[in-house]
Design brief:
Length: 202
């Protein structure tokens, strides 16, 4: 696989990441899910850095993006385990909204839901609308969104490091104007003098 085809592939993945993250950010804003909002914003920043690195042949930026893909993969795996209640973690602990008692937008406005009713929270202070009879439960919608991010990160991570390695090797092999001679391209070589240098006699 050539360097150009890897650049195109990673560019397509980055565009897909931008689209998926913007879509997710919109719904997280609608549900006031503050932790995912911050995470999505950081992810958008790192994807833009990665796009710049790929476009401008900057291996350090591509490596930064690749490392972030690993971090982003871990964060989304945590979100999946949160919504599917794998282990001791659960979305009911309200960590995603920083304990502000906000819920996922998809819990209030599910996909293809037939009924909508109001549930009180544990302390009874706040009433939350909850949907039922949905085609797809909100836990699965959130899990699918996080799963798409995981899949894109898994694909982008090895490509980023492969591209960064190739870009770094190309930087080392690049022959600047004038080469690596002792004379710069901007400094003309000094003319050799035809005068013969002899030591001074005292």
């Amino acid at each position: 696989m050539g360097c150009c085809s890897v650049r195109k592939a990673i560019g397509v993945l980055q565009i897909l990441q931008l689209i998926a993250t913007i879509e997710r950010q919109i719904f997280d804003f609608l549900g006031f899910m503050w932790a995912p909002i911050l995470g999505n914003f950081m992810h958008l920043c790192f994807v833009v850095i990665g796009l710049f690195g790929v476009h401008q042949y900057r291996s350090k930026y591509v490596v930064t993006y690749g490392v972030w893909c690993l971090v982003w993969l871990g964060l989304n795996l945590f979100v999946i385990s949160l919504y599917l209640e794998i282990g001791v973690v659960t979305y009911m602990d309200d960590w995603l909204s920083f304990k502000t008692e906000h819920i996922s937008w998809f819990k209030e406005n599910g996909i293809g839901c037939s009924t909508r009713h109001v549930n009180q929270t544990m302390n009874g202070a706040k009433k939350m609308p909850v949907t039922s009879g949905c085609v797809l439960q909100f836990e699965y919608v959130e899990t699918i969104q996080a799963g798409i991010q995981c899949m894109l990160s898994i694909l982008a991570f090895p490509l980023a490091f492969f591209l960064a390695k190739n870009l770094h090797e190309e930087d080392d092999r690049f022959d600047f104007i004038g080469g690596f001679d002792s004379h710069s391209a901007y400094e003309p070589p000094s003319k050799s003098s035809k005068l013969r240098m002899e030591p001074l006699q005292s």
